[in-house]
């Protein structure tokens, strides 16, 4: 995969980085922890093929564009449909329409911070686009905070590849497992939350 990404960047330059970061948001097996450090390495003095600022900009823009499909899916679905779905089909997950409304209210208050900082968290970077769309976050605000968060994330990864040089692949060795740990922790929390809700309902009945 690394060779394929490097070849794409060598052939297409910044456009290749842009396209890869779009794909990274849509297909998690292509992680930014591989794309941006390798792009940073391509901009290093050892390679000199790209400019580090152009690399970061292309990565940030691609990442933002890649968030739009999930954002629009959430926006089309909307709070009303999500609430109706939860009331009708959410019983086995112990999710109710009221839960959806509370989550939407929370996102209305803290959504900007969630999008900004969430774009820097491996494993959930893309997933935050869905609740942003469901809550009806205005598109300009969503794009702004997505760009800021994505720019910081892309900058950190590209800088790591730039300074590590040929050892840029070490970034993925450290960050990759972190994303799996975060996803695993979220899955465990979700299972615990379902069990807790079912016990509460059983005790209340």
From TrEMBL:
Domain VTT positions: 30-162
Compartment(s) where it occurs, according to its Swiss-Prot or TrEMBL record: Cell membrane
Membrane spanning stretches: 12-30, 50-73, 142-165, 177-195
Keyword Protease: no
Alphabetically ordered keywords of this record: Cell membrane, Membrane, Transmembrane, Transmembrane helix
Top-level taxon in the UniProt lineage: Bacteria
Membrane-topology annotation of the record: Multi-pass membrane protein
Gene Ontology cellular-component annotations: plasma membrane
Classification via Pfam families: VTT_dom
Listed name of the protein: DedA family protein
The species this protein was found in: Deinococcus radiophilus
């Amino acid at each position: 995969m690394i060779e394929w990404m490097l070849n794409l960047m060598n052939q297409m330059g910044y456009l290749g980085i842009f396209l890869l970061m779009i794909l990274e948001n849509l297909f998690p097996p292509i992680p930014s922890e591989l794309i941006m450090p390798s792009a940073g390495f391509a901009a290093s003095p050892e390679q000199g093929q790209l400019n580090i600022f152009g690399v970061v900009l292309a990565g940030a823009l691609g990442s933002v564009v890649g968030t739009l499909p999930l954002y629009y899916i959430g926006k089309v679905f909307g709070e009303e449909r999500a609430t109706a779905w939860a009331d009708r089909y959410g019983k086995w997950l112990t999710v109710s329409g009221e839960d959806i409304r509370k989550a939407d209210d929370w996102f209305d208050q803290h959504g900007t911070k969630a999008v900004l900082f969430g774009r820097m968290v491996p494993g959930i970077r893309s997933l935050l686009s869905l609740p942003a769309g469901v809550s009806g976050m205005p598109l300009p605000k969503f794009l702004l905070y997505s760009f800021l968060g994505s720019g910081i994330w892309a900058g950190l990864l590209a800088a790591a590849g730039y300074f590590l040089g040929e050892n840029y692949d070490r970034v993925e060795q450290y960050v990759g497992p972190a994303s799996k740990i975060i996803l695993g922790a979220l899955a465990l929390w979700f299972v615990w939350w379902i069990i807790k809700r079912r016990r509460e309902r059983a005790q209340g009945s």
